[in-house]
């Protein structure tokens, strides 16, 4: 598409926050300044676009944010933006500020909103994948995923210490409503006895057999990782079922929850976010609209948002196989 002249870019973070979002905002803003553009922060995601929470950003706003978790622009899941009236209000506010392009940092819900908005109002826009879930097609990694895996694995290491001291069986629930990426990586990276993910159903009987076999092998501790959206239920539900079948086990459940969304971003997430922030601004300048900037095989790739969200990425069959081999 023939590039439009862009003068003012609005940047926002939307949906569940992810470590590295601040680094992505900072890179977007710095790149904008580099190309002599004016940069605007849209606070609280699409909610703030509708409520006109929009401020011009200066260099002082992005000092020392790269290394911080969360998002200084704040985030929200907006129901109103799903309505035509909500999007109309949002458009009117952008027009008031003369914002003529958008960078949207978020997961599949946020990018779905961006796609809809672009089709209705045609404002040049580009997405940056920011979600701990890693479930977007068009990029090898999403911002926040690596940090979330590190957080989960560090927490599981601690659980392992106490599990071993007491010969206990722990069910640890990690985040991932529809995607098992954190679970499978945490499982491989912490020597889990089994990993239950939303993409694959593991019958309880099979889990029982695996745990029985491990008892026979005198394994000192057992940790089962359960993705919150697991097909057989959450960690509490599965622990209850197992307790009925293996009453001799001393069973505990830990839900890691939102601690996986916080904390300073890892080196990998900082670098990924920084590269994608620059790529987003350069993409807009080059006339790449309604796309998501991602990294595949260490190269920047722009994928139509429609493809990135429709092609929901599932855990690789091979990763699942590796986890299985290493847990028997
Ligand atoms: O999409 C990221 C994510 O952390 C999911 O893994 C999780 O299911 C969901 O967000 C939780 O969302 P909320 O913080 O709105 O409860």
Automatic annotation (TrEMBL):
<feature type="binding site" description="in other chain">
    <location>
        <position position="160"/>
    </location>
    <ligand>
        <name>ADP</name>
    </ligand>
</feature>
<feature type="binding site">
    <location>
        <position position="16"/>
    </location>
    <ligand>
        <name>ATP</name>
    </ligand>
</feature>
<dbReference type="GO" id="GO:0048029">
    <property type="term" value="F:monosaccharide binding"/>
</dbReference>
<dbReference type="GO" id="GO:0005524">
    <property type="term" value="F:ATP binding"/>
</dbReference>
<dbReference type="InterPro" id="IPR012828">
    <property type="entry name" value="PFKA_ATP_prok"/>
</dbReference>
<dbReference type="InterPro" id="IPR022953">
    <property type="entry name" value="ATP_PFK"/>
</dbReference>
<dbReference type="InterPro" id="IPR012003">
    <property type="entry name" value="ATP_PFK_prok-type"/>
</dbReference>
<comment type="subunit">
    <text>Homotetramer.</text>
</comment>
<comment type="similarity">
    <text>Belongs to the phosphofructokinase type A (PFKA) family. ATP-dependent PFK group I subfamily. Prokaryotic clade 'B1' sub-subfamily.</text>
</comment>
<keyword id="KW-0479">Metal-binding</keyword>
<comment type="pathway">
    <text>Carbohydrate degradation; glycolysis; D-glyceraldehyde 3-phosphate and glycerone phosphate from D-glucose: step 3/4.</text>
</comment>
<keyword id="KW-0963">Cytoplasm</keyword>
<dbReference type="GO" id="GO:0061621">
    <property type="term" value="P:canonical glycolysis"/>
</dbReference>
<keyword id="KW-0021">Allosteric enzyme</keyword>
<feature type="binding site">
    <location>
        <begin position="107"/>
        <end position="110"/>
    </location>
    <ligand>
        <name>ATP</name>
    </ligand>
</feature>
<dbReference type="GO" id="GO:0016208">
    <property type="term" value="F:AMP binding"/>
</dbReference>
<feature type="domain" description="Phosphofructokinase">
    <location>
        <begin position="8"/>
        <end position="283"/>
    </location>
</feature>
<dbReference type="GO" id="GO:0003872">
    <property type="term" value="F:6-phosphofructokinase activity"/>
</dbReference>
<keyword id="KW-0808">Transferase</keyword>
<dbReference type="GO" id="GO:0030388">
    <property type="term" value="P:fructose 1,6-bisphosphate metabolic process"/>
</dbReference>
<keyword id="KW-0324">Glycolysis</keyword>
<keyword id="KW-0547">Nucleotide-binding</keyword>
<dbReference type="InterPro" id="IPR035966">
    <property type="entry name" value="PKF_sf"/>
</dbReference>
<dbReference type="GO" id="GO:0070095">
    <property type="term" value="F:fructose-6-phosphate binding"/>
</dbReference>
<dbReference type="Pfam" id="PF00365">
    <property type="entry name" value="PFK"/>
</dbReference>
<feature type="binding site" description="in other chain">
    <location>
        <begin position="175"/>
        <end position="177"/>
    </location>
    <ligand>
        <name>substrate</name>
    </ligand>
</feature>
<keyword id="KW-0067">ATP-binding</keyword>
<dbReference type="InterPro" id="IPR015912">
    <property type="entry name" value="Phosphofructokinase_CS"/>
</dbReference>
<feature type="binding site">
    <location>
        <begin position="26"/>
        <end position="30"/>
    </location>
    <ligand>
        <name>ADP</name>
    </ligand>
</feature>
<feature type="binding site">
    <location>
        <position position="252"/>
    </location>
    <ligand>
        <name>substrate</name>
    </ligand>
</feature>
<feature type="binding site" description="in other chain">
    <location>
        <begin position="219"/>
        <end position="221"/>
    </location>
    <ligand>
        <name>ADP</name>
    </ligand>
</feature>
<feature type="binding site">
    <location>
        <position position="108"/>
    </location>
    <ligand>
        <name>Mg(2+)</name>
    </ligand>
</feature>
<feature type="binding site">
    <location>
        <begin position="77"/>
        <end position="78"/>
    </location>
    <ligand>
        <name>ATP</name>
    </ligand>
</feature>
<protein>
    <recommendedName>
        <fullName>ATP-dependent 6-phosphofructokinase</fullName>
        <ecNumber>2.7.1.11</ecNumber>
    </recommendedName>
</protein>
<dbReference type="GO" id="GO:0042802">
    <property type="term" value="F:identical protein binding"/>
</dbReference>
<feature type="binding site" description="in other chain">
    <location>
        <begin position="131"/>
        <end position="133"/>
    </location>
    <ligand>
        <name>substrate</name>
    </ligand>
</feature>
<dbReference type="GO" id="GO:0005945">
    <property type="term" value="C:6-phosphofructokinase complex"/>
</dbReference>
<keyword id="KW-0418">Kinase</keyword>
<feature type="binding site" description="in other chain">
    <location>
        <position position="228"/>
    </location>
    <ligand>
        <name>substrate</name>
    </ligand>
</feature>
<feature type="binding site">
    <location>
        <position position="168"/>
    </location>
    <ligand>
        <name>substrate</name>
    </ligand>
</feature>
<feature type="binding site" description="in other chain">
    <location>
        <begin position="258"/>
        <end position="261"/>
    </location>
    <ligand>
        <name>substrate</name>
    </ligand>
</feature>
<keyword id="KW-0460">Magnesium</keyword>
């Amino acid at each position: 598409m023939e590039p439009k002249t862009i003068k003012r870019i609005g940047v926002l973070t939307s949906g569940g926050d992810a470590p590295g979002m601040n680094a992505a905002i900072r890179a977007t803003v710095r790149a904008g300044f580099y190309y002599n553009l004016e940069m605007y922060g849209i606070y609280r995601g699409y909610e703030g676009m509708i409520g006109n929470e929009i401020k011009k950003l200066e260099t002082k706003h992005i000092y020392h944010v790269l290394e911080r978790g969360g998002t200084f622009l704040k985030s929200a899941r907006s129901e109103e933006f799903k309505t035509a009236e909500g999007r109309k209000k949002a458009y009117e506010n952008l027009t008031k500020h003369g914002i003529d392009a958008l960078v949207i940092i978020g997961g599949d819900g946020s990018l779905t909103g961006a796609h809809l908005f672009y089709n209705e109002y045609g404002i040049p826009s580009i997405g940056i994948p920011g979600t701990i879930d890693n479930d977007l097609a068009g990029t090898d990694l999403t911002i926040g995923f690596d940090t979330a895996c590190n957080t989960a694995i560090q927490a599981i290491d601690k659980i392992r210490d106490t599990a071993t001291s007491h010969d206990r069986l722990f069910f640890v629930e990690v985040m991932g409503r529809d995607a098992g990426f954190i679970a499978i990586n945490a499982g491989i990276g912490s020597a889990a006895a089994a990993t239950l993910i939303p993409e694959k159903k593991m019958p309880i009987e099979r889990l029982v057999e695996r745990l029985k076999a491990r008892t026979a092998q005198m394994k000192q501790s057992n940790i089962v990782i359960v993705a919150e959206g697991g097909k057989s239920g959450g960690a509490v539900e599965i622990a209850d079922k197992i307790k009925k079948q293996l009453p001799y086990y001393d069973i505990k459940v830990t839900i890691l929850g939102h601690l996986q969304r916080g904390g300073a971003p890892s080196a990998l997430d900082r670098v990924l976010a920084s590269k994608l922030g620059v790529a987003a601004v350069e993409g807009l300048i080059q006339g790449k609209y309604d796309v998501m900037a991602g990294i595949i095989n260490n190269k920047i790739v722009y994928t139509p948002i429609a493809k990135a969200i429709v092609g929901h990425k599932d855990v690789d069959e091979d990763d699942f196989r590796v986890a299985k081999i290493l847990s028997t």
